[in-house]
Design brief:
This protein has about 170 residues and is an all-alpha fold. It has one domain. It has nine helices and two strands, in the order αββαααααααα. It has a two-stranded antiparallel sheet with strand order 1-2. Strand 1 and strand 2 form a beta hairpin. Helix 7 crosses helix 8. It starts with a helix and ends in a 9-residue tail after the last helix. The relative contact order is 0.13. The mean pLDDT is about 85.
Length: about 170
């Protein structure tokens, strides 16, 4: 194959992916009015269960309540991000909420809620150790957002052995 043909093929593939990705983002936005969309909530709940496994309550009712509270804190965190960062996060969540995007970025064959904690953990580990920089960045974004929102609440500090801030004298 000639170099010119290869370049044309690369440009064509890039344009096709951009158009398809943009269309998918319109159909399944990650953020709506600065809040997580339904599909983004499902995705981030699955990520939280995988990342926070061992830190979440064992009881199913308490676990569900902790995850709901986590998602509320995550929305507050997202609302405080600069608009450009929110737009990028919305695009990422849109991409990850589609089957092709999820498969390409994470390797997950099943949708987020059906994947299960072990599969999501394996996918996260695959992204963390990936030789592709963008996959590592996706891992870091998902992990950092999850940890920041979860451990921002004082009720979770005991899990870390952190007694809280010292009083000022």
């Amino acid at each position: 194959m000639q170099r010119r043909t290869l370049l044309k093929l690369g440009v064509g593939a890039t344009v096709t992916l951009a158009v398809l990705g943009g269309g998918l983002a319109l159909l399944r936005p990650g953020l709506v009015d600065g809040r997580l969309s339904a599909v983004a909530r499902t995705l981030m709940r699955a990520v939280a269960e995988a990342v926070l496994d061992g830190s979440l309550p064992a009881d199913a009712t308490s676990r569900a309540a902790a995850l709901d509270a986590h998602l509320q804190r995550l929305e507050v965190l997202v609302a405080g991000l600069p608009p450009a960062t929110r737009d990028e996060l919305s695009q990422l969540l849109s991409l990850l909420s589609t089957a092709p995007g999820r498969l390409a970025m994470t390797g997950l064959a099943h949708d987020w809620p059906e994947a299960g904690v072990a599969s999501v953990q394996q996918a996260m580990q695959g992204m963390r150790l990936s030789g592709i920089a963008v996959r590592r960045q996706v891992y870091q974004a998902l992990r950092d957002l999850t940890n920041a929102a979860y451990y921002a609440d004082a009720s979770t500090w005991a899990l870390l052995g952190y007694p809280g801030p010292r009083p000022l004298s």
